[in-house]
Amino acid sequence: MSTLIATIGLVWLSLTFIAPKITKGNVTVSEFSLSMVPPALIASLSIIMLICGLGIATMFAMSILGIPLSLEVVIASPGQYAINELATNLVATTAALVMSSKLMPSLISVTSGRWAAIASLPIALFITAIGLMAAVPVMV
Questions:
Q1: Distance between CA atoms of residues 69 and 51, nearest Å
Q2: Are 47 and 123 in contact (CB under 8 A)?
């Protein structure tokens, strides 16, 4: 639960403060809200939901194609694992930003796929860092 809360908070932080600055306003979240929930929080939740949906769809397609799903993680090379995880999160986050822009244009605005990729970099970094912290065994 704490990783979910951290992920939501860091995606919200990225969409509110970091993405508009690094994309020069080409990726923005609406300021207008119809409810008590801030639009950036709704955008964060929708992006996380789309990332999870893309992951589920990928695993479903792999099972249909007969590709064995191996969910256990064996980290032989931590550096290579971190790079692969970052690349995967970057692709999924970019796709989620583009899909969010198409599905909810009044909530989040992305002018092009290039700007979505640039805006997704801090989000992917945060998600990768949270995932790596969650993967480290706790020694008591």
A1: 18
A2: yes
Query: What CA dihedral angle connects 23, 34, 93 and 12, to 10 degrees?
Result: 70
Helix, strand, coil percentages for the chain (3-state, nearest 5): 70, 5, 25
Query: Which residue pairs from 134-138 have beta carbons closer than 8 angstroms and sit at least 24 positions apart in sequence?
Result: 134/3, 135/73, 135/75
Vertex 110: Cα angle to 108 and 116 (nearest 5): 115
**Tens digit of pLDDT for each residue in 5-64?**
889 999 999 999 999 999 998 999 988 877 788 888 899 999 999 999 998 998 899 889
Q: How far is CA 96 from CA 65, 69, 80, in A?
A: 24, 23, 24
State how far the Cα of 127 lies from the Cα of 118, in Å rounded to an integer: 15
Contacts of 106 (CB under 8 A, 6+ apart): 30, 32
The CA distance from 125 to 122, in Å, is 5
